[in-house]
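User: Please run a holo structure prediction.
Assistant: Happy to. Please share the sequence and the ligand.
User: Here you go; the ligand is 3-hydroxy-3-methylglutaryl-coenzyme A.
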Amino acid sequence: MTLPMVVPAQGLPPRIRIHEVGARDGLQNEKTTVPTETKAEFIHRLAAAGLTTVEATSFVHPKWVPQLADAEALFPLLQDIDGVHLPVLVPNDRGLDRALALGARRVAVFASVTESFAKANLNRTVAESLAVFEPVVARAKDAGAHVRGYLSMCFGDPWEGAVPVHQVVSVAKSLMDMGCDELSLGDTIGVATPGHVQALLAELNEEGVATNTIGVHFHDTYGQALANTLAALQHGVTTVDASAGGLGGCPFAKSATGNLATEDLVWMLEGLGIETGVDLGLLTDTSRWMAERLGRPSPSRTVRALTPQAEDQEQ
Ligand code: HMG
Ligand code: MG
């Protein structure tokens, strides 16, 4: 299996935790609904490839995201996976009840920093959605769960255009004040560039949000996700969201495409000598297997580069 030559760079963290979102962010956006057993196998294979956090599904309204309407059937099929966190998204009390009833130990609320996307994604204003999340986070913490707070549209919004940094900081502080254990900064439509990433992280630090509570979540619409990730690593971020094979998007934001592909991220981190614990061969096999089930090739450059071409196989 081809791997990059290891040449470390100065000033980067020695180890990164990858927060794998393919089974949730990836599959929520597929036109066809993937069978529950296929999702369960996908998640088992991701765990076997060495991913230690695999976001499993969402306990959202089944009419809003029919692709994940099988959350109750799926989650119990994952209980034999040892030593891997399986966070789930919960938009409100009802979602939290459903998740806790099945024994979920990690949940994520998901806020928008813009009014347009709050309305499109949660049917609420930003303030209303934060008011919904406050008791959800409190109850989740009381139940001993770890809580992630997503922020969407941190760098730009398809309806509102550029998003001022202070708007992101305000929602980030609200989520931390509620008791979230970590945040994930979402570039939902993939418009961020590296300077913008570093400016936002600096401003968050300035306002008291520590780097070790921040993860980054880049979609790759303009091919900037890996450059943005490197900028975040240079700032000291050690949690990076990525999606096996580059699956992903958001059904409520037209311009959202796939997430940063986990394979592309692992290739870069391997080359930098940064530990991830991920076996790139097993991961690539998994994404190829999933692409076959979805009936289209993986958009990941690394998956494509590591896939033998038909003519090579014939030789
Ligand atoms: P609503 O229609 O305003 O809901 O939707 P409601 O509170 O008015 O309730 C209406 C009915 O829905 C009630 O039933 C509730 O019980 C039921 P009734 O009493 O009429 O029979 N209901 C539920 N049923 C099951 N599970 C639930 C639930 N909640 C209410 N959890 C709601 C509001 C938030 C529910 C809806 O807008 C929703 O489900 N939105 C989810 C959207 C979503 O999943 N988006 C994708 C994930 S976010 C993302 O991808 C971005 C991210 O990747 C980061 C980035 O890239 O930026 C995280
Ligand atoms: Mg996303």
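The CA atoms of residues 50 and 278 lie 4 Å apart.
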